Amino acid sequence: MAGRVIVITSGKGGVGKTTTTANLGVALAQNGRRVVVVDADIGLRNLDVVLGLENRIVYDLVDVVEGNCKLKAALIRDKRTENLTLLPAAQTRGKDAVTPAQMRDLMAQLQEEFEYVLVDSPAGIDHGFHTAVAGATEAIIVTTPEVAAVRDADRVIGLLESKELYEPKLVINRIRPRMVRRGDMMEVGDVLEILAIPLIGIVPDDEEIIVTTNRGEPAVLDGHSRAGQAFRNIARRLEGQEVPFLELEDGSLMARLLKLVRGTKAAS
Predict the structure, then answer these.
(1) Which residues belong to any copy of the CobQ/CobB/MinD/ParA nucleotide binding domain (predicted)?
(2) Residues 139 and 9 sit within 8 Å (Cβ to Cβ)
(3) Buried b / exposed e across 186-202, counting CB within 10 Å, b at 16+?
């Protein structure tokens, strides 16, 4: 059975796509799944750094599609998590170095070997985006609860539909409950009302994740990280499990968030 090819995208940069890709990849691999994470941000790769694998790169995605090496030679096995593999992007080439047709062929090869192929899309909606989504069978949209990020995510949903990716899932990243209560940050329900797609995860803002990311250690490897727990929960939901959303700060807030989420689902 062919594996699932899931593109992680957003529209706006800096909302946590690469962090989400790395953490979901590790979490799914920890669950025993064979996972490859693909950095499609050609020219601006970072997924290797987030995973702490930057010193192991010999070949990259562009080398594979241009025939400079076999696919197997470009794949890098994670040093800490069994079953997790990285296909890095090229650092010195432009986003037009790979065509959507080449990407589709590459995804077809990877899904024969892996149960999950997670594609880290570049920001924006230009050529790099169209290449990253080529060959994907599913999509996850990452946004922060900010007006600009949500607006760009809404645009991306429309573009995904034009690619016949009709049911993307939503991750709301870096939510700060205190700012939400003060009215300085959008509420979960507001984001869901605008985007109108299923919510698969809410990730709390966590300063520690900046530290672990800089060390090349995804948060899911830290058993005490709340952001890490949120990503583990998302991975379980991808597997079809019913998992409660994290209690972000206190019971009353969680009750309110769940009420908003359930109300949106009931209306959809």
Answers:
(1) 6-218
(2) yes
(3) bbbebbbebbebebbbb
Q: What is the pLDDT of residues 217-260, one digit of tens each?
A: 899 998 889 999 999 999 999 999 999 988 776 544 555 555 55
The answer to whether the pTM exceeds 0.70 is yes
Amino acid identity for residue 9 in this structure: T
